[in-house]
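[READ THE FOLD]
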Amino acid sequence: MPALPSLGGRRGGRASREAAQRQRIPVPLSAYVVDCAVYVRGKRLPGRWTHTEAVDEVRRRGEGFVWIGLHEPDEEQIQGVADTFGLHELAVEDAVQAHQRPKLERYDETLFMVLKTVRYVAHESPTTANEIVETGELMVFLGRDFVVTVRHGNHSGLGMVRRQLEDDPEQLGYGPATVLHAIADHAVDSYLAVAESIEDDIDVMEAQVFEPRSPVDAEQIYLMKREVMELRRAIMPLATPMRRLTEGYSPLVPEQVRSYFRDVDDHLATVTERVAGFDEMLTTLIDAALAKISLQQNTDMRKITAWAAIISVPTMVAGIYGMNFENMPELHLKYGYPMVLGVILVTCFVLYRIFRQKHWL
C-alpha cells in the first residue's frame, strides 16, 4: 500500500511558498535617483551617469565633483551610494529614517546637514483651513568631490536649484560647498515666502476677532498657532548650523562660499524674528477671542436671566391660584380674573422696560 503524503509536508510547502511571495521585490537604485551629474570647472559634463561611473570619472580627472539626488531611498538602496562615497553609517541611518531636527554634523572628511523644507498649503480662508504648513526634509552629504542629497516629501524638489547653479558656472566652480549654500538659501527663501503668507492669514483672523458682533472660533486660532509652532521647529534649530558654516566649521567650505552663507544667516535671523512675532500675536488673539466669547456668554446669560425674571411673575401667580384651597381671597370677585391678568401684564411690562434700560434685553 503506497504511503500517503504527509499533511504537515503540504502545509510546510505552502507556508514556504507564501513566505517567498511575501518577500519584497528588489527595486533598483535608479528608481530613487532623481539626477546624477558630473561638474568640472562649473560645467556639467554631457551624458547619463551612474554614481559609480560619476565618481570614477571625477577621481580619474582629479578635478570636479559629483552631485547625485535621491528621493526617499530605503536602507538597502542607499547602502550602495554610502559605500561608494564613504558615508558614515549613523548619518546614512538618519537620512533613511528622516524625522530629524535641523543639524550639522562632521564625520571624518564629510559634512552631514539636515534641513526642514516647508510649503504653504493654499486654502480659501484661514478660519476654515485644516492645514496651513506642510513640512519635508532635506539631507545633504558634502565631501571633497561629491554632494549627495536625500529628500523626503513631494514639495522639496531641487530641480530649480540645480538649473540655477548650472546657469552660473562661475559660482558652481567653487565646488561642492556651492551646492550646499544654494540648497540652504533655497530653504530659507521658502521660509520667508511661507512666513509672508501666514502673516496675511493672521491679519485676516485679527480683523475678524476685533470686528464687532463677528463670530469667533478660538479653535481655528489654536490650529494656526500649531502650524506656526511647526514652522518654528523647522527654522529655529537651523541657526546654530548656519552660524557654524559662516565661522569655518569645516575646510570643505572655502572662504569664498562662507561669505554667501553669511547672507543666508541674515535672512534666517529675519524670518526667525518674524515667526517669533507670529507666536506672540496669536497668543494675543487667543486672549482677545476668549475674552470676546466670555463677553458674549455674559450677554446671553443676562438675557436669559431677564426673561426668566419676567416669566416668573405669571408663573408665581398661576402657582398661587392653582393650589385649589376653598378659602382663598378674591376667588369670588366678579372682576378678579381680568384684574389678575392686568397685574401680570403690567408687572411684566415694567420689568421688560427696566431690563431694556439696563441693556439686558
